[in-house]
C-alpha cells in the first residue's frame, strides 16, 4: 500500500469508529419520471456495500445501471475503498452480467432465509488484490511481486511456482 492509500484507509476507518459511515442515496430520473433508486454504504475501513438498486421495468436495459457503475466505482476508489461488494439473486442475470462486465468477480454464495440463493460479487479497486484473487481461485500462478506481498502468512499449499 502506498502512503496515500494508507491515509485514505485510516480516514475511512475513523468514519466507521465515529459512526459517520459514507452513505449514498440516489434517485434516478428520466425526464420528470422516477426511473429507480440506489442505496449503498461503507461497511468497514476498506469495504463498501452496494445495498439496493432498483429500476422500474420500463427503464431497464437503457444504460442507467452501467452509468451508475461507471461513475460510482472510480468515486469509491478515490475515497480509498479497496472492495465494493454486492449480493444478488442467483437468477438475476442482467445485473450479474452487468457487474461481471464492469470487473466484479464472484467471491461467494450464500443462502438467506429471506432472499434465497445469493451470489456475492466483489470489485477490487487495488490491482494487486485483484491479481491475488486470481491466484486464490487458481486462475493464475503466484508471481514474484505477489509473493513479496504475502510475507510469511501466505499459505498457497505448494502453489507458489512461478511459470
UniProtKB/TrEMBL annotation:
<keyword id="KW-0808">Transferase</keyword>
<dbReference type="GO" id="GO:0016746">
    <property type="term" value="F:acyltransferase activity"/>
</dbReference>
<feature type="domain" description="N-acetyltransferase">
    <location>
        <begin position="1"/>
        <end position="129"/>
    </location>
</feature>
<keyword id="KW-0012">Acyltransferase</keyword>
<protein>
    <submittedName>
        <fullName>GNAT family N-acetyltransferase</fullName>
        <ecNumber>2.3.1.-</ecNumber>
    </submittedName>
</protein>
<dbReference type="Pfam" id="PF00583">
    <property type="entry name" value="Acetyltransf_1"/>
</dbReference>
<dbReference type="InterPro" id="IPR000182">
    <property type="entry name" value="GNAT_dom"/>
</dbReference>
<dbReference type="InterPro" id="IPR016181">
    <property type="entry name" value="Acyl_CoA_acyltransferase"/>
</dbReference>
